[in-house]
Structures are given as structure tokens and as C-alpha cells.
Amino acid sequence: MSERAADETDGTTEAGHPEGVRPRVVLGVGGGIAAYKACELLRRLTESGHDVTVVPTEAALAFVGAPTWAALSGKPVATDVWTGVHEVPHVRIGQQADLVVVAPATADLLARAAHGLADDLLTNTLLTARCPVVLAPAMHTEMWENAATVANVETLRSRGVLVVEPAEGRLTGADTGKGRLPEPAELFEVCTEVLARGADAADLLGRRVVVSAGGTREYLDPVRFLGNRSSGLQGYALARAAAARGAEVTLVAANVGLPDPAGVTVVRVESTADLREAVLAATADADAVVMAAAPADFRPASFTDAKIKKADDGSAPAIELVQNPDILREISGGDSGERARKDSVIVGFAAETGDATGSVLDLARAKLARKGCDLLVVNDVSGGAVFGSPDNEAVILGADGAAVEVPHGSKSALAHRIWDEVARRFTN
Ligand code: CTP
Hints:
The chain is 33% helix and 23% strand. Mean pLDDT is 92; it is low at 1-15. The two termini are 29 Å apart. The chain contains 15 helices and 19 strands. It folds into 2 domains: 25-200, Rossmann fold, CATH 3.40.50; 208-424, 3-Layer(aba) Sandwich (Rossmann fold). The chain has helices at residues 3-7, 35-47, 60-63, 66-73, 89-96, 107-114, 121-128, 141-145, 147-158, 184-197, 233-244, 272-283, 327-331, 360-371, 411-424, and strands spanning 24-29, 51-56, 99-105, 133-137, 162-163, 167-170, 176-180, 208-214, 218-219, 225-226, 248-254, 264-269, 288-291, 298-300, 321-323, 345-352, 375-380, 391-398, 403-410. Cytidine-5'-triphosphate binds next to helix 13 and strand 16. Cytidine-5'-triphosphate is lined by residues 272, 291, 293, 295, 297, 324, 326-328, 348-351.
């Protein structure tokens, strides 16, 4: 946080910043075609009450001109250190920022940032910033995978810079691959998450985590399936929060229609069998696994290739079900207690309603022991309240006896509390 924001702490706004204080964001723009997407990011930042100074590189102006940046930010725009020298912009802009975000960051810009060059206003700003720095690279796959870029990204990350993994998809020409700038709406989410955390933003840097989300579908025939009400919102909030804290995130998503969170590798699955395969593959070298998905406990014993027809006599087919494997229990070590990685932290979710045999928390404690995981996030779902809702409340139970109550709040707030508890349990 800049001095200004830290001093004025009376009450906070919905966006989490002190009332009357507009967080100062520097939006750096590199010279790539994705510069046009930064206009939408700028728009979202200003409309949500941020004070944004745009610092494009000279090359960025070849893609989107200074009048656009000036009009959208309401401020003059400069690329060099010689404009308004009496205000010492080459140090002032960086010093006063609460967040510096560069989108798109080109290979050239990553190289200059990694080597501490200061040959324009943006690189000067990166050198003087004391706040969190987010770089969102966009370039062709070959440039992203080049050993020089890989080394530069590693250097920047080792210094605490949050370098957002580019998305896969259509690039400038007809080609596709890794290198796309994530969607502006998702970059905006990264910015707000990082701003809310301030100086501790990147505490999961260097960690690999796996999150599962959504509800599985168990097909009876090519058109019908057994499913459940899981929306995937909590799992996506977990993935987003972990990525904003610097983790390398694999999100195994079962039938979720939400946009891919920025910087997250999304693996799409349908059935519990697919989910199990994807989670096991990603778990081998993961520091943490959070099973927020709702895998179906049962699947039809058989699958019919042709659509099941109605019988003329009005009878309905009996559907025989078999039990699915318990993925959480398997990755937690099952009966043997052996895990893919002994020091991994494994988290389960339990949606409970309580019954004649015990209260929600009694049942959850028993489930925690049965599953063998380290943490169990317990939702009381009597009445179906959490499904599809942007909010949640829970108790996080630890195998070590901990019980952390998380009051009603956003799924993002719960996600951060879960990662706090996970981070506390890392032993290496
Ligand atoms: N889970 C799993 N594999 C399954 C079912 C559930 O990994 N086949 C995980 C869920 O992702 C969740 C946790 O186990 O993290 C608890 O899910 P829940 O449905 O509450 O557990 P069940 O074992 O199915 O218990 P119950 O008999 O109460 O339904």
C-alpha cells in the first residue's frame, strides 16, 4: 500500500479500499496487438473507482493511440521520462502506486524488467514501485517458450512479481497456442484480488495447487445423465484466489460454464471417472489439492449407446447404480495413508444437513476422519442455500483439531481463508 492509502483507514468501500480513497493503479501497456484488450481493463478499473495512470510504451502507441488512453483514464499519457520533469514522473508514479499491472507484457518488456533496464517511463516505474506488480504476458507461443523468456519470467517470479500465465487459444494470425492475453474481466479480478491483499499478495509463489470444481455427470445414454446442483463458483473462486497469490493452478472443472480464470490451467471433464483421472494426474507433484467438486457418488451400472426409448406399456426402466470411487479418500492415502507427496495438504468439502445421527459438525468430524484429508470445509446446506449463490459461510475443520468459523461472505473471501489455512500447514 502507498503511504496515502495506509494513512486513511476509516471504513472501507465494497471493493475493500478505504472510503474516499481511490486506489492508485498504474496500467502499463506493452507494444503488442493485445493492447486493445487493455482498454477494457482500464474501463473496468476506472468504473470501479480506481485512480488509473496509463503508462504505455512507445510501441504500444502504434497499436492504441495516446488519445484513447487519456480519454479512458482522464489523465495525460506519457511514454518517456522527459514529460512534466518538474513532477519527477520517473519515480513518483511508481512510488505512489498501490498496484502496477502491465497488460500486455511483451517478451521485450519482460526482458527489460528482468534486467532492471530503465529506458522509458514504464521500466522506470517498475523499478520504483514498492507495491505488488502484476505482469500479464501476451506473445506468440515460440517467444513465450524461448529459453530467454522462460529465464526472464523465472527471475521476475523469484523477485515476487506475479507473472500471469498466458491463455491458450487464437493468436494474432491464423495460429493458435499458448500466448493469449487472458480476458480483461479476469485480469480485472486478478487486480482486485491483489489490491485487496496488498503487500502479502504473492504468498503462494512457487506452489503448485490443484482445485476441482463443478458437478459430474453420469450418463445413462447419449443424452441423459445423473447430475447435481454444484455450480462450480466456489471452486473457481479458489482457483482465482490461488492464482492471484502466485500459485501455479490446475483447475479440474466438471461441467462448469464459467469463464477461465486468468493464469489458470483448466482441464474440462464430465464424469467422476474423468475427474478422478485428471485429479490424479495433476496431484502427483502438487503442494495442495482442494476437492471443491461434487463428484457423483453413484453412476448407472451400464451405459446404453442408443437413446433409451419409452415403452408402450407405460413402464419405466429400472436404473441400477454402482458406487463411484472416492477420489478425496484416494488422494489422501486411503487406508494405507500413503500419498503421492507426503507433505501435500489435502482439503475436502462437505455439504451436510445434519440428521438423527448427529449435528452438521459431528457428521463433518466423522467425515474428516473417514476421508483422511487435512482440512474439511463444512457447509450447512439445509435448504440448499449455497448452490449457485455468490456467497457462502463455512467452518474449516482441521485433522489437527482446528475449527475456523468463516462468517457469511463472498466465496472469494472463503477461498482466501482456506488458502490461509493451507499455507499455514505447508511444512517445506
Ligand atoms: N468426493 C470425492 N469423490 C467422491 C465423492 C466425494 O472425492 N466420489 C469428495 C468431494 O469432492 C468433497 C468430499 O469428498 O470434497 C465430500 O463429499 P461428500 O459428497 O460430502 O462426501 P461423501 O463421501 O459422498 O459422503 P456422503 O455419504 O455424506 O455423501
